[in-house]
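Internal ticket - ligand job 275, NAP:
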Amino acid sequence: MLMKGKRGVVLGIANKKSIAYGIAKACQEQGAELAITYLNERFEKKLAPIAEDLGCAGRLYPCDVSKPEEILALREALERDFGRIDFIVHSIAFAPKEGLSGRFSDVSKEAFNVAMEISVYSLVELSREMLPIMNAGGAILTLSYYGGVKYIPNYNLMGVAKAALESSVKYLAEDLGRDGIRVNAISAGPIKTLAAAGIGDFSFMLKWNAAHSPLRRNITIEEVGNSGMYLLSDLSSAVTGEIHYVDGGYNIMGMPAVIFDKEGKPHIAWNGEDR
Ligand code: NAP
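stdout (structure tokens):
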């Protein structure tokens, strides 16, 4: 039981398809005690059976990360019910629709600020506000995507937010290292979730990734869950500030693989079947 005796909070479970659910499940299976959060009352009912399933029916708390008072209330609730905590999973992102298609340069300042506040600053604020109740040896994990490193069609504003998130991981890792807290990110390959549905042409992204990843398939939330559990457990006790790819190896490809037809002419193996 790699997480026995560890207590942590998971933010960002919308349903059982959420990446955060995959991570929470993997931690629970390894003996962790969990608390989870929901965005507002609308989601409380939906999350109640999931909390039950994760063994934390009494530890389901509200937390809209755009509201500082809710982050403080979350800390109070965790302190009341857990005393201290060992890990935080931050699996939250949001960008207004206008930021996820069309021309990037058309994005409004308002949309830009909302995406940065919810998808990036929330990690910094959560880390700071939870620090007083975190045990040394603890770990913080967030979720990123390759679109923060290289251009990905339609990812637009979220790509810029993920670049800032990945940089925040490194600065937080140095900052919280003195408190014995590690901070890492998983850069996951595309997975069909609620958040992903907001990205233009997402099903093409899935096909493209499956076709061009070394493993020739897409990844699952269980696989992200297992890697996340590793980064939250003592198995990774000397790992911090890392952006760990769980993407079937897609990020190492410098060029799409090609196949050759009967005449020896190359063409891109876009659907993966002929690789
Ligand atoms: P998801 O199931 O829709 O999870 C996103 C979560 O963010 C939801 O629980 C959502 O709550 C929450 N959220 C949004 N605004 C919030 C706020 N103001 N306060 C608190 N929570 C808020 O989608 P997901 O794909 O698992 O996304 C989780 C993370 O993984 C995100 O950072 C995403 O960018 C990242 N990621 C996803 C993929 C992918 O392909 N799916 C790939 C790489 C990285 P509600 O649902 O209640 O609104």
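Auto-summary: The first strand starts at residue 7 and ends at 11. The pocket of NAP is lined by residues 12-14, 18-20, 39, 43, 63-66, 91-94, 118, 143-145, 188, 190-191, 193-196 (CB under 6 Å).
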